[in-house]
Amino acid sequence: MDAEGRTGLGGSLAMPLPPPVAALIREGQELGHAMDAVSRALDTKRGPGAVGILTGGLMDRQGAYEPLVMYALSRFVRAELWESR
Predict the structure, then answer these.
(1) pLDDT tens-digit profile of 3-17?
(2) 3-state secondary structure 15-53
(3) Taking CA 67 as the corner, what is the angle to CA 35 and CA 83, rounded to the nearest 5 degrees?
């Protein structure tokens, strides 16, 4: 949000989850804990995250979120396109 109250919005980051992970989430577990259990790793949410594990390291958590932030900033980067004519 800028000083005038305009907000930017970006989103996506949707990918399928393996059935065992999805089942644990449906039971109420947080994604990070479910990924730890299924991948037999520790504290993956502070490391590669689910996206890092599921892509075999092709994408990490930070890389996955960077485009979303850029999408949200697009309104400010090209503000002239948002102005009423």
Answers:
(1) 888 888 887 778 899
(2) CCCCHHHHHHHHCCCCHHHHHHHHHCCCCHHHCCHHHHH
(3) 140
What does the pLDDT look like over 41-56, one tens digit per residue?
899 888 888 999 999 9
- Token pair, residue 54, equals 């599921």
Q: Using CA atoms, how far apart are residues 18 and 51, in angstroms rounded to an integer? A: 12
Residue 48: burial class (beta carbons within 10 Å; 0-12, 13-18, 19+): buried
pTM comes to 0.70
Query: Are 64 and 13 a contacting pair, CB within 8 Å?
Result: yes
Torsion (CA) 60, 63, 67, 73 in degrees, nearest 10:
130
